[in-house]
Every structure is written in structure tokens, then in C-alpha cells.
Structure prediction request, 184 residues.
Amino acid sequence: MKIAQKVVKLKDGRSATLKSASPDEADLVLQHLKISHKESYRNLNQGSAHWDNVSVEDESKFLADLESGKNKFMIMAWVDGKIVGGLGLFSQTAEFVRHNASLGMSIQNAYCNTGLGTHLMNTALETAKQIGLRRIDLTVRTYNTAGIALYEKVGFQRIGLLKEIALIDGQYVDEYSYQLLLKD
Ligand SMILES: CC(C)(COP(=O)(O)OP(=O)(O)OC[C@H]1O[C@@H](n2cnc3c(N)ncnc32)[C@H](O)[C@@H]1OP(=O)(O)O)[C@@H](O)C(=O)NCCC(=O)NCCS
Prediction:
């Protein structure tokens, strides 16, 4: 589904526009993913090299599929025509569990700790409620203090520890598992 445009003010006075990317903006999405995965691969599931191997055409198809889907979306944060952050929410499709969704997000370093994470998250949670989702889950590396601060601030509850779930720079690292039940 497509998220309508909204302008938000950041803590440092800058503004950002939040909206979905259309299929013809696939190159800009890939550019963001390459930058954020290069900067923050320790917090994410792959490095930027992965995104070097995704073609603009394939990303465009992915965005078109997202746009036509009912219970999944990505919200990108735009500044001066470039994407500086993004959040994806993907619901499950099987009959008994389709009220559940998983969430992931990444913001480029220059825009971290400006309130952008909170704006993206609040927009995602509002949208999730509107489309009838009930439960959202995510995982976060145990050392990702910024992520943990954001998720706990908006009400996610820690439900477990996933030991040695990722192999980063030759070392196994742990993640916390979080869930949020959306109230009516
Ligand atoms: C995790 C991430 C999305 C958080 O976004 P953000 O832009 O820092 O979020 P905000 O600026 O809205 O900050 C949210 C809260 O966390 C706090 N915070 C920010 N950075 C922090 C840090 N390093 N340590 C502790 N708290 C921090 C802020 O003060 C704010 O609290 P407040 O509103 O009470 O002041 C962002 O840091 C990011 O994308 N990092 C790289 C990729 C990544 O880690 N993705 C998540 C993988 S699970």
C-alpha cells in the first residue's frame, strides 16, 4: 500500500517528507539501502554489497508489488529529493496469523537521533492500526542502544533473547525480540 505524503520537523530544525517510494524511484531506494547498510551493517542483516547486486528493475518490481499489497508498506524519509531513512512493515499472509506484522527500519547516520525514527515509527503504527493489524514484532541487536531506546519509547515490550543469531565481523552476536500489541 501507498503511504500519503506528510512533512515532519526534526529536532535540529530540518524538515523531512515521509511517503512511500513509487516503482520509478527504485534507484533512490537502492541508493539509501547501500548507504545505510554500509554505515550500519552491524545493526542489520546484510552489508551494502548485497544491494550492489540488486538491479533497479528488480527493486522497481518489489516496490510495485508493495504498492498493490494490502497489509505491507514502506515509508521513506525524503530530504532534498533524496531518501535518508526508511521503515518497512510486512504482515503475515496465512489465515490465522494475518494480524501480525514484522517491522524493520534504517536511517542514515546524518539523520539519526533527530527524531526521525520516532516520526517514521509513529506513522507506521498509525497506519498499522488503520489497516486492522493487531501485533507487531521486531528484533534488535543487544548493543543497538538507539534502536532499543526508540522501540521501548513507543511501547514495544522485550520478550526474549535470541542467542548468537547473527555473525558480524566473525563474532556471533545476540538480539532481543520485541512485540507491541496495538490497542483498539
Ligand atoms: C535505530 C534507529 C532507527 C533509531 O532512530 P533515531 O533517529 O535515533 O530515533 P529518534 O531520533 O526518534 O530517537 C528515539 C529515542 O532514542 C533516543 N536515542 C537516540 N539515539 C540513542 C542512543 N544512541 N542511545 C540511547 N538513546 C538514543 C533519543 O534520545 C530518543 O528519545 P527521546 O525522544 O526521549 O529523546 C536509527 O538509529 C537507525 O536507523 N540506526 C541504524 C540502523 C538500525 O540500527 N536499524 C534498526 C535495526 S533493529
User: Anything to note?
Assistant: The longest helix spans residues 26-40.
